[in-house]
């Protein structure tokens, strides 16, 4: 084998390291969670339905492929996405799978159940309505995810706290709820609750990363605005 062939094989083997790292559904789910906000191993294990040991092993695989990195927070170590490119990769994987695999839609419908056909608002339409002050945007993700990045002007009302915060919402203004993206049910559950209580509510299928990919601004808790 020529030296050139050896080097080319090595080159593509290095590319394949990324594919191997994301070639497990639970690791893709962990990346999806970390794309919202940094997490400790314990928090990530709870959110992904894994044991701490399994979460730790999967994070080491992702870290070895340079897809996640760590940062020390006092006595805790948090994992976070290593680059926005990682988020883009995960989104492209989901989009390609949805376009090529009928099983994705079957699994989505099974996951969402009767809610699968619930009304969703397109990002462009919502952007226009936000600027016109025509809707109240509610972020129903956990507060730390809202702090890490959210749609401009969105209220942070985690799903678990939505019912007790209903008196603070006006029934005169339509509500748009959003969460982590097209495969998250938090906003669907929020819309169900809001409608039962007499609010006009719809869900935004996009999460903040889909929103950003459209070229729209994202706010952070420190009032930083990124595009």
| Count of helical stretches | 11
CATH hierarchy: architecture of the largest domain: 3-Layer(aba) Sandwich
Number of domain modules: 2
Rg computed from alpha carbons, rounded to a whole number of angstroms: 19 Å
Strand content: 5-15%
Per the CATH scheme, the topology name of the largest domain is Oxidized Rhodanese, domain 1
CATH superfamily of the largest domain: Rhodanese-like domain
Mean pLDDT score: 90
Number of strands: 10
Order of helices and strands: HHEHHEEHHEHEHEHEHEHEE
How are the strands ordered across the major sheet?
4-8-7-5-6
Overall shape? globular
Bin the helical content.
Answer: 40-55%
Stretches where pLDDT is under 50 for at least 5 consecutive residues are: 223-227
| CATH class categorisation of the largest domain | Alpha Beta
Which oligomeric state applies? single chain
Which structural class matches the secondary elements?
A: alpha/beta
Tell me the major beta sheet. Answer: 5 strands, parallel
Tell me the distance between the termini.
48 Å
Describe the 3D structure:
- The protein has 227 residues and is α/β, with parallel strands linked by helices.
- The protein folds into 2 domains: 3-86, Arc Repressor Mutant, subunit A (Orthogonal Bundle); 113-226, Rhodanese-like domain (Oxidized Rhodanese, domain 1), CATH 3.40.250.
- 50% of the residues lie in helices and 15% in strands.
- The protein is built from 11 helices and 10 strands.
- The strands form 3 sheets. A 5-stranded parallel β-sheet has the order 4-8-7-5-6.
- α3 packs across α4.
- The relative contact order is 0.11.
- Residues 223-227 have low confidence and may be disordered.
């Amino acid at each position: 084998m020529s030296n050139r062939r050896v080097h080319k094989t090595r080159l593509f083997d290095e590319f394949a390291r990324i594919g191997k790292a994301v070639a497990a559904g639970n690791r893709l789910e962990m990346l999806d969670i970390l794309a919202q906000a940094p997490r400790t191993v314990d928090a990530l294990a709870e959110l992904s339905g894994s044991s701490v040991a399994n979460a730790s092993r999967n994070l080491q695989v992702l870290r070895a492929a340079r897809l996640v990195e760590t940062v020390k927070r006092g006595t805790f170590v948090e994992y976070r996405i290593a680059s926005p490119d990682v988020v883009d990769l995960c989104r492209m994987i989901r989009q390609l799978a949805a376009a090529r695999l009928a099983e994705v839609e079957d699994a989505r419908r099974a996951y969402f159940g009767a809610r699968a056909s619930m009304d969703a608002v397109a990002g462009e339409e919502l952007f226009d309505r936000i600027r016109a002050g025509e809707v109240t945007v509610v972020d129903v993700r956990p507060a730390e995810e809202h702090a890490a990045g959210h749609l401009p002007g969105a209220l942070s009302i985690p799903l678990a706290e939505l019912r007790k915060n209903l008196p603070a919402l006006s029934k005169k203004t339509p509500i748009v709820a959003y969460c982590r993206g097209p495969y998250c049910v938090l906003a669907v559950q929020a819309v169900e609750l809001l409608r039962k209580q007499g609010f006009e509510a719809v869900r935004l299928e996009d999460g903040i990363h889909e929103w950003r990919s459209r070229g729209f601004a994202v706010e952070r808790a420190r009032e930083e605005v990124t595009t």
